[in-house]
Amino acid sequence: MGKLKNLKKSAKAFAEARRLLPGGVNSPVRAFTVVDANPLFIAAAKGSKIYDIDGNEYIDYVGSWGPMILGHAHPKVLKAISAAAKKGTSFGAPTLAETQLARRIIAAFDSIEMVRLVNSGTEAVMTALRLARAYTKKDLIIKMAGCYHGHSDSLLVAAGSALAETGTPASAGVPNSFAKLTIVIPYNDIDAAKAAFQFIRRSAPVRRSEPVRRSESEDGSEDGSEGGSHKNKIAAVILEPVAANMGVVPPLPGYLEALRNLCDTEESLLIFDEVITGFRLALGGAQQLLGVKADITCLGKIIGGGLPAAAVGGRADIMALLAPIGPVYQAGTLSGNPLATAAANATLDILEKKNCYEKLETTSALLQIGLTGAAKDAGIPLTINRIGSIMSCFFTDRPVRNFADVQSTDIKQFKRFFAEMLKQGIYLAPSAYEAMFVSLAHTKQDIEKTINAAKTAFHKITN
Ligand SMILES: *Cc1c(COP(=O)(O)O)cnc(C)c1O
User: Fold this and answer.
1) CB of residue 434 inside a 6 A radius of ligand 1
2) What is the biggest distance separating any 2 CA atoms in the chain, rounded to whole angstroms?
């Protein structure tokens, strides 16, 4: 413990990768840019541990950014994947495993009556927005600052995750006209949501840069006209019901209920992006835990069981708009892939068993209590937000309830904490804006080791 790791092979591999892949990575946050370090190249992972190519072992709290709720390389998941692989890796035709997975998603979520399987969370959200716009015949979307919904054009507007940290308000290459269709308001602020609806109602009609939809020219209504049920122009409000891409920020009591009511009154759809929280906080996600139903739900991460799979689901009347039975186009060569559905079904087999979520809660609470105590002993102001098995350590003495709060925390201290933990074999997300993920594979000993490492780290930070 405490000795500097040899990271020579990772450093060399990164230098080579940077010549061939932009930034040396295939997803930005992996580059460790925001913690001023070189990324570890990973050779393998098992249970709660991850191993780099220099042969160092770490207790892993990244969990591939959420999917690995069972821990890495779970024998039952591996067995299911290899059994499926032997029968062929992709058919581009329906399989029984897809229906099985759909049935279980529908059983887990009260608000989901039909589901479409896709390959990534980004795709799930893209499809959710297209469905909402088709269903409501409106164009605008409200999103919350600090919530991340993947990298599609309409949602890279003051997005969270890695983008927020590099201080870019949106991505280059996103047309202004797309960004204009998205209204960004603070999370956990119901007055801001009401004000956004008011503002849109009062402001000049929103010009559509796309062709006017057929239905609209048929019924004769024009942009800006207040006829029919078009009370406003907002198709949907989308959010992570428990924000987890600006660090973990749970909703304030009553916030989700109030958004639900607002959407009902305004005839806009409520989309919950449960790509992190689905099957993580409970089988039925944040919706089950907090008792508020979405019209459309996006799932990902855990439902791929560590392979690329995601889903969009919702009320049958909305989902029935999807091709081939409806006019909303969506498709995917590898959607419902046999390996991914096998991994997903095997993962859900385990999660559906008794006590999984209780166990995750117990382990995670232990970690929270230990870290809180360690920080206090060292005299370091620390706010830990935790819900179930996701949590964040914010270096501040104030509560953290939205993105502005997150941005006011001490990022320098986080960076030092991250580096000191890594040296001691604790692999945290290389960003103050990402969650810690606890898995079913984390043991009491893992938690004790982590807390001890944090004690050392906190003392180093103060000195
Ligand atoms: C990760 C994530 C996404 C994007 O999913 P990908 O599979 O990376 O495209 C969308 N929404 C939320 C809440 C996420 O955490």
Assistant:
1) no
2) 73
d(CA 200, CA 317): 27
Percent of the chain beyond pLDDT 70? 90
161 CB near ligand 1 (under 6 Å): no
Q: Is residue 238 part of a domain?
A: yes
Give pLDDT, residue 231. Answer: 54
Tell me the CATH number at 447.
3.90.1150.10
Q: Does the annotation mark 135 as catalytic?
A: no
For residue 125, give the ligand 1 atom closest to its CA: 10
> Is residue 340 located within the same domain as residue 397?
no
Mean pLDDT, rounded, for 402-418? 96
In this structure, which residue's CA is closest to atom 14 in ligand 1? 275
pLDDT at residue 210, as a whole number: 47
Q: How confident is the model at residue 436 (pLDDT cuts 50, 70, 90)?
A: very high
The total number of structural domains that make up the chain: 2
* Residue 49 among the catalytic residues: no
Task: Name the residue at shortest CA distance from atom 10 of ligand 1.
Answer: 149
Q: What is the structure's pLDDT at 226?
A: 41
Out of 301, 405, 415, 433, pick the active-site residue.
301
Question: How far is the centre of ligand 1, averaged over its atoms, from the C-alpha of 78 (Å)?
Answer: 23
Give the distance, in angstroms, between the CA of residue 7 and the centroid of all CA atoms in the same chain: 30
Q: Which domain holds residue 403?
A: 8-73+355-462
**Which of 315, 294, 299 shows the shortest CA–CA distance to 347?**
299
Structural domain ending residue among the three candidates 351, 375, 391: 351
Task: Please identify which residue in the block is written with the tokens 């999370």.
Answer: 187
Answer for the pair 246, 160: CB distance below 8 angstroms, yes or no.
yes
Least confident of 110-114, 226-230, 316-320, 405-409: 226-230
Contact 304, 343 (CB under 8 A): yes
Using the predicted structure, report yes or no on whether residue 221 has a pLDDT greater than 50.
no
